[in-house]
């Protein structure tokens, strides 16, 4: 039976290129999951885009001497290219400056407002005494009132991670000219989060299959929910569609508010582009559809509490009840899949400190599947994980190249040299049957892990079959069976069948090399489909053209099953699947990645 599965992937912030820490948290895991779900026959909608509003964009734009729009145009493209290069199979990777996104954000807000879950409150806003202009949060720094760190920003302390209000900072000063800001009263709109405490608690109590740390963390926050501001004094963002608000150039939705609604707006945009404007509903309003959200651990609260609260408010399901808004009754997340952090040499990846490896540099030198392999087998799935070049080189050389690459190469080489095609098997022996059964049974075992987002366990099981197949070849020694070609051909046929099965098992992880193995085994056509960048015109703003990531995944042949290989299919001499890396790289890394 086919299920509609929404893969909702965290939105990268468009203020710079992505480093490998970013894609290890949200990128590769969500793509492995989506590819597996498609191979299992489910209808996947994988969506995301770049998050492009807010003060950090304005800060970055000022630094670059550009407008915010020019800055996000630049990084939207850079990020889309990074993710495309990694082979992340988005149905739509879009952005938050589109006319469609603005409309969906405003529509969802109006439903919240109609149902009574938006409350106005007077708050303190900062202005610059010398210019009289509003000073956005991030332009203010000072000492954190919680931990005492002296470089805290007006909206957040990078040291303790707490959200702040600029008026709370001790010794606040402007980052533009160092002057002390003046605080004046300003009205803002707040989401009445406490009105959802009970509904959220009931819903969370049904989420028993979540990773325990995510569930516990979310439940602990329930007792202390506070109204949360959804507007800001800022001119770069989505306008507020209420009389008295929409005319004010310095009142916009807070960036977190518009970005999290991107999951819905991207789904709607995908549907509008597909020719069936209602097609998104199968993932959002059908009760048996599933929705999986992928992100780093610093984003859990937005996906386990705040986004569900917005959905409940839109549906009219908080303390004040209400009626569903324009989108109908929307589904809450099935699961929130969060990962931990990838660190480098013990410290968090940071562009400012120079501990950074950009995706684009990595792909240019090593290609996508080595990074996908490393993240899957050694990434920060359950705990913070240190990236070291030494471990990267070791895993690529000893696991990917020596184990998997070598199994593919010697199985196909021997069959090519001796038969020139997939050989005909005869009377199978116990060892042959055992190995084939191990590979066949792995579909259930690996599939079960993947359904539950246990990527390390899943790829570990697939690699266990690779190890068994290599031992089988060493034991059976087909190269010594010149005078018994029937037995030799049976062994080679067994090895090729297992290579074919393992290639299917590894396809979600290593889609690029899986396509190559498919071809080395004599297959034709698309085995694992890849995304591509398409230039599209904004559906609501004539003349605005931007790149999106999309793909034709229905064309791919890979199915989550053991498929018998075809006897007699011609086999050419294989070329190596993975190049071995220079062990010296393990000591320092490539020159471009040296820590500055
Ligand atoms: Zn702090």
Automatic annotation (TrEMBL):
<dbReference type="InterPro" id="IPR029038">
    <property type="entry name" value="MetRS_Zn"/>
</dbReference>
<dbReference type="Pfam" id="PF19303">
    <property type="entry name" value="Anticodon_3"/>
</dbReference>
<comment type="function">
    <text>Is required not only for elongation of protein synthesis but also for the initiation of all mRNA translation through initiator tRNA(fMet) aminoacylation.</text>
</comment>
<feature type="short sequence motif" description="'HIGH' region">
    <location>
        <begin position="12"/>
        <end position="22"/>
    </location>
</feature>
<keyword id="KW-0067">ATP-binding</keyword>
<feature type="domain" description="Methionyl/Leucyl tRNA synthetase">
    <location>
        <begin position="6"/>
        <end position="411"/>
    </location>
</feature>
<comment type="similarity">
    <text>Belongs to the class-I aminoacyl-tRNA synthetase family. MetG type 1 subfamily.</text>
</comment>
<feature type="binding site">
    <location>
        <position position="351"/>
    </location>
    <ligand>
        <name>ATP</name>
    </ligand>
</feature>
<keyword id="KW-0963">Cytoplasm</keyword>
<feature type="binding site">
    <location>
        <position position="144"/>
    </location>
    <ligand>
        <name>Zn(2+)</name>
    </ligand>
</feature>
<comment type="subunit">
    <text>Monomer.</text>
</comment>
<feature type="binding site">
    <location>
        <position position="160"/>
    </location>
    <ligand>
        <name>Zn(2+)</name>
    </ligand>
</feature>
<keyword id="KW-0030">Aminoacyl-tRNA synthetase</keyword>
<feature type="short sequence motif" description="'KMSKS' region">
    <location>
        <begin position="348"/>
        <end position="352"/>
    </location>
</feature>
<keyword id="KW-0479">Metal-binding</keyword>
<feature type="binding site">
    <location>
        <position position="147"/>
    </location>
    <ligand>
        <name>Zn(2+)</name>
    </ligand>
</feature>
<keyword id="KW-0547">Nucleotide-binding</keyword>
<keyword id="KW-0648">Protein biosynthesis</keyword>
<dbReference type="InterPro" id="IPR014729">
    <property type="entry name" value="Rossmann-like_a/b/a_fold"/>
</dbReference>
<feature type="domain" description="Methionyl-tRNA synthetase anticodon-binding">
    <location>
        <begin position="422"/>
        <end position="524"/>
    </location>
</feature>
<keyword id="KW-0436">Ligase</keyword>
<dbReference type="InterPro" id="IPR014758">
    <property type="entry name" value="Met-tRNA_synth"/>
</dbReference>
<feature type="binding site">
    <location>
        <position position="157"/>
    </location>
    <ligand>
        <name>Zn(2+)</name>
    </ligand>
</feature>
<dbReference type="InterPro" id="IPR009080">
    <property type="entry name" value="tRNAsynth_Ia_anticodon-bd"/>
</dbReference>
<dbReference type="Pfam" id="PF09334">
    <property type="entry name" value="tRNA-synt_1g"/>
</dbReference>
<dbReference type="InterPro" id="IPR033911">
    <property type="entry name" value="MetRS_core"/>
</dbReference>
<protein>
    <recommendedName>
        <fullName>Methionine--tRNA ligase</fullName>
        <ecNumber>6.1.1.10</ecNumber>
    </recommendedName>
</protein>
<dbReference type="InterPro" id="IPR041872">
    <property type="entry name" value="Anticodon_Met"/>
</dbReference>
<dbReference type="InterPro" id="IPR015413">
    <property type="entry name" value="Methionyl/Leucyl_tRNA_Synth"/>
</dbReference>
<keyword id="KW-0862">Zinc</keyword>
<dbReference type="InterPro" id="IPR023458">
    <property type="entry name" value="Met-tRNA_ligase_1"/>
</dbReference>
